[in-house]
Each structure stands twice: as C-alpha cells, then as structure tokens.
Amino acid sequence: MNDKISCIICAYNEASRITAVLNVVTNSSILDEVIVIDDGSTDRTSEAINRFSGINFIKFNQNKGKGFSMAKGIKVARNDVVILIDADYVGLTEKHLEKISLPIFESMADLVLGMLVGDTSIGSKLNALGQITGPFITGFRCFRKSDFRALQLIQKERYAGDIIITNDFIRRKKRIKIVPMRGLSPIKKTSKIGFIQAIIEYAKMYKQILKGLILHPPFPGQKESQTISREE
Fold it and tell me: What is the pTM of this model?
C-alpha cells in the first residue's frame, strides 16, 4: 500500500485567499503531491496558483461545481491517502495536516473529519449548523481513495459532495473520527461577496445539502455510536 499523501484543493474565485493555503501545503514535509483544481474561476485564481511550482494544476474553462472538482482530484491523485481541503482556510498549519492524517496511518479511522471550533461569527454558526445536519459537513477531510465508493455520485453534485462522502463511509459502517481543528477558520461568504448575496448563496448551498440528505441517507445519529468517534 502506498502511504504517501495527495492533497486536493478545489477553488472557485479564491484569488485573494488561496495563497495562504498554498504557502502551507507546498512547503509541507508530509505531502507528496498537491493537486489544485480551478473550477472555472472568473478572477485571478489561476494566476495565484501559477506562482507556486510543483503543483498538479487542473483548470476548467467553466464552473462545474465542487463535487465534480473533488471527484477529478481524487481520480488523478497518485497516492492512496488523500486530504481534501477548502481553498479559503485561514490559519492552516503543518500540525493540522498531521492531525487530519494520523488516524488513517495509525489505522484508527477510515475517514477523518476536521471540525472547526471557536469561531462565533454568523458564517461559522451557519457552517456549524451544517456540520450537525449534514451530517458532518466540513471542507477538511482525509481517507484512502481505495476505500471510497461514491466517486460517481459526488461528481454530479455542486454542494452535496461532502455529505455523500461522509454517508458513503457511514452506510458501510466504516470508522469515522472527528477531530477539532483549533485555530483554523474559513473566510466567510459575507466577507467575499457581501451580507445579502452571502445569505442567498448560503440558501442555495443548504438547499442542495438538504437534497443530498434526502437522496443519500443515512441522517445524523443513525447508528452513529457504532461508527463515529470524537476527539475532544
């Protein structure tokens, strides 16, 4: 088994934010490969990515959705262990990368979910709600691609890909570990596009999430105690 790590980052209009994440992952001693997918950005995201060397850079001419981008990254990853991380995180460190991947290497979990803690902003409260009702929506996760069975499903989704990944592991009674990622937070949509437009985008996102929940159960709590552990 190849125990090196491929890191997958999906980005859409993150020109002013992705550099902070790329600074960390491209200098990481534990990552063997960094894959970045520009999902049809209309800003200068591609220019920001091209400032970094050694990246497997994939650019779509039009926006296909996060699920499609995630599936593409998983398909092309040369390593079995993959980390998926959002492009707009602030405060990412090498320790976060180690913490998300260690349970996989120690055979303590089949899927590791990095949960953001300590942020009380409106955007984060909505994200926290999504993490409860998702179940466990997070832009930071690690698993073995050889142990993933829902690749065809996630590439059809714009926002529900994270739910489908989590539910794929729950449905097959795989071990899921939730680890807190203190000091890590996303740039809120309110900061990116303004309050009103952010609320509209959140509404669209959670509509897709609800659809994903209905089409791809189980719901939160279903046999959770048998499959899910939480690190405090």
Answer: 0.82
